[in-house]
Amino acid sequence: MVFYDGCSIFVLFIPYTFSYAELKAGTDDFSPINKLGEGGFGPVYKGMLSDARAVAVKQLSVASHQGKSQFVAEIATISAVQHRNLVKLYGCCIEGDKRLLVYEYLENNSLDQALFGNKTLFLDWSTRFEICLGVARGLTYLHEESRVRIVHRDVKASNILLDSDLVPKISDFGLAKLYDDKKTHISTRVAGTIGYLAPEYAMRGHLTEKADVFGFGVVALEIVSGRSNSDSSLEDDKVYLLEWAWQLHEDNRGLELVDPSLSTCNESEAKRVIDVALLCTQTSPNLRPPMSRVVAMLSGDIEVTPVTTKPGYLTDWKFSDSTTFLSADASTSNTDQSTQFSSSAGTTQLSDPNYTPVNVSASMLGEGR
Ligand SMILES: Nc1ncnc2c1ncn2[C@@H]1O[C@H](COP(=O)(O)OP(=O)(O)OP(=O)(O)O)[C@@H](O)[C@H]1O
């Protein structure tokens, strides 16, 4: 397929398109028994294709305003992006107003389930370290190595899936571009993932790949500590993971962050992960390293840059307040669906028309403390 965006001509490979009947048969008519879960984009079903491939079928729940060819063009972009640490997109289905995406099925569910779900899966230290590295490599590919640069926008533990060998695969990349970003949907997603949001994106909608670096830092700390980024059942000083991690770091007790359920742990690796995570979550995007440097620091190929300033944490955040604010804002947001890119010094700057500002004050970011 060839398409023209006003300045450049793109040649894209048309992705594999499945018939609705095939997916209906493969999921037993989208039987509730096969339902894997439901995310912001819609329900996801486990299915089996006629060639015996196990798949996850994602039904986009809000009809896209995009025309068929634009939808196919976007899918083609995502399908062209392939890496060991990204979930493989097998193809799509477009029939009438139905839009479905078909992914490889990953046996071991998501990282958040493994870390803070029912913990049927135990992740030892070396597995956790490899997961950190794998996620960092997947993001490096998306940001710096793939044909099209992609900012994921929603890096979090539930968007990292684990295959049968516990190799991490980043899911949902590129989806934000595809989706008909109704404001209600976006506000749900922003509210739902607040703990991973980079301050500049939360406050100003300023989106670069450094927002993903921030999200990675939060995930890395969750992997080391085995707890989620915010847990109100813990003692006051431990509720916010970033705040607690910084406190321990300042007191030279960084390794106390390590999950107590781990019987053994490689301390130098754990220290590296924590220090890199604190760098990744700096308030200023310029202080956050690019993902290729993160990989090099984690693997010990280069020294970890010393971190001297605290991360940008949202200490005073109240989830109920944020939901109220975001819902109220949703009705008044702009409806321009276009996304503008400009490129400078090799960095893709993306001003996100779907961004809903979050009512965050400087004190919430810990500034001036
Ligand atoms: N390729 C896949 N293989 C196996 N399970 C999957 C796959 N993709 C999604 N799932 C499961 O389906 C459920 C919903 O996933 P989905 O990615 O739609 O939402 P989410 O990541 O939980 O939330 P959000 O949309 O807010 O990011 C999750 O439990 C996830 O583990």
TrEMBL record:
Subcellular location: Membrane
Domain of life the protein comes from: Eukaryota
SUPFAM superfamilies (alphabetical): Protein kinase-like (PK-like)
GO cellular component terms given for this protein: membrane
Keyword line: ATP-binding, Glycoprotein, Kinase, Membrane, Nucleotide-binding, Phosphoprotein, Receptor, Repeat, Serine/threonine-protein kinase, Signal, Transferase, Transmembrane, Transmembrane helix
Region (Disordered): 328-369
Chain segments annotated as coiled-coil in the UniProt record: none
Xref: PROSITE patterns: PROTEIN_KINASE_DOM, PROTEIN_KINASE_ST
Ranges of biased composition (kind: Polar residues): 328-362
Keyword Transmembrane helix found: yes
Domain Protein kinase, residue spans: 30-308
Main location: membrane
SMART domains, per the entry: S_TKc
Molecular functions per Gene Ontology: ATP binding; protein serine/threonine kinase activity
Name the record gives this protein: Protein kinase domain-containing protein
Species the sequence originates in: Daucus carota subsp. sativus (Carrot)
